[in-house]
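Table S2 (continued). Query chain:
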Amino acid sequence: MEKYTLTRLKALFMASVLTATLSSCGKKSQNIEAPNFKRVFESSFGVCFNTSGRMATDELNKLIENKLKEEEKQREEESRVTVDDVLVSFEDSAFNEETKAFLKEFLNANDLNQDVLKSFIEAPQEGRNYFAQLLDAGISHFPFGYSESLFDEVINNLELQLFDNRKGIIEDAPNTYIQLVRVKQLDNYNVYRPFNMFLGFGNTLIITDLDNKIVAHTCNGYVEIEGKKFQLTNFNWKLKKLGLERMARRNYSMADLKQIQCAISNYAGGRNSSYIKTSDVIVFDTAKCLISEDIDGRRPYYFLEYLGKDVFNTGGYIYRDILNKNAIAYFYQNGSKSYFIYEDLTKVFDEEFYNSTGECVYIEPFSIDSHYFASGEMYFSSLDSFLKNKGCPELVIGEYTTSYNIMNICREVTESFLAEIISDKDSLLAL
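Corresponding output:
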């Protein structure tokens, strides 16, 4: 190609010179006037030279550009990593044959770019923590997206599993119930991600065979389960064993799973009495929350009964709203980290959304968490302390109480609160 381009450039230049020569001969033989001859000579030679020069330059540039592209493509091909290259790097590693078989299916099922594949080649030398991070990066997270309604029933029960690890059967994994959602199904393996309904998902993966027997997990690095394989438990079957078959469904929403997590925690704690222990009741005062200066459609006081520890998460404690069976209160305390959330899971039809889109969805009517708390304010108190501070010591009950008594207390203190608000507004109007 280079030889052709140079030859063509020479030919075009010679054509220009020949044009000038013939023009000169024509002047002598045909007696053409000099001004016309000079004008023709200059314009013809210039056009010829400029055109041929541009053509030659463009072709030369194209030649160089194509050559560079060919060299770049060749370099890419020479450095390209394949799935087989990754598997070869694992052949003599300390990982067992089960891991190598899983890795092959995992890599073939995911369209990973060259940078990621090159990282996998380094995993046998970098170690098990590094390998766990690479697997986690290639697995999608929990199916619920931020755009999903709290009540959309999107997870089939066959995608859910439970594992009771409270006795530490699996080393390095949390000593809790582990609720699992399948996020990847391969030819011979399933990949699950543990999910705590109040704190979200972590970076841990649980890898099983098709019979849902655990072969590895990535809690605190990639850990292979040798010998005996531990069996996951079908979600709906476990609910039945716990006496919670009334809560079993074909498909689950996030609200469903939150209520089930609370129910399982309550079952594990053995709290089934119809009477309420007074010392287990705390009052959540929302009057000073940053979300609103007024009640804004909410009760100012929420009476919460302690149900027990969250058996799905160390450091979690679950309460229920005594006057609203669909509401859940959750405290989390682990070292310096603390968190609180109150959620009313009552289904409320979103009329505005239906009128604008024609789609029927449900919304969460009320949710508040510790992000709305003002610094230095007190939002929780025992039932006895609350009633004494409100000037209602006569309402203090004995060791046990009932939901009916709590309802009467709530009505009385709420009416008093509303009266204070009305009085304050009237005084402002008078000013």
